[in-house]
Amino acid sequence: MLGLTGLLAGCSSDPTLYTLAPLPGVSQAGGPTVVEVRTPVVAARLDRDSIVRANDDYQMKLVSGGSWSEALPEMINHTLTTDLAQRLPGTTVFSQNDAVSTTPRAYVELTIRNFEADSAGHVLVTGSLAVHPAGTMISPVMTGPIVWQSSDVVGTDTRKLVQDLSQGVASIADQAAAKLRILPPPVE
Length: 188
What we know:
Residues 18-177 form the ABC-type transport auxiliary lipoprotein component domain. It holds the Pfam family ABC_trans_aux. This is ABC-type transport auxiliary lipoprotein component domain-containing protein. By secondary structure, this protein is an alpha/beta fold. Helix content is 27%, strand content 35%. It has one domain: Rossmann fold (3-Layer(aba) Sandwich), CATH 3.40.50. Helix 2 packs across helix 3 (158-181).
């Protein structure tokens, strides 16, 4: 009986939990006074506890023994919000569903299609980014594709994969900040 208990205890190892980290960027003056970052739409194949390492040769490869520390859409949202707040000093930036009692003057919306390594081992983040003022929808919506690829190969290093994915989110924050700075005020 003791041997069976020891065997079961050896099999029940907890996964290593990983989280995206906000990264510093260039601060840019200007932009709306209050911005809401909406919870991103993430491709269903990526929205799981396990980290997707790569999508290669018609196979989705997961990180063995590694999981996200929270739901991926919320983690991307909070990381992007922190990155964006750092890049837009003087702007209040908050995440959708945060306990904030203010009205946004602009919105940031994101769709993520790729958030893993490509067949060559470079981290690839793709999707689309939309920035628009609050108010009536006759206001301009600045929408464009997101394509970010790491310069180096991550191989099987999960920490490096997550670090490069964090850099991909920081790149999205740079693009969103630039769009927010030139956004016209909302039409009320």
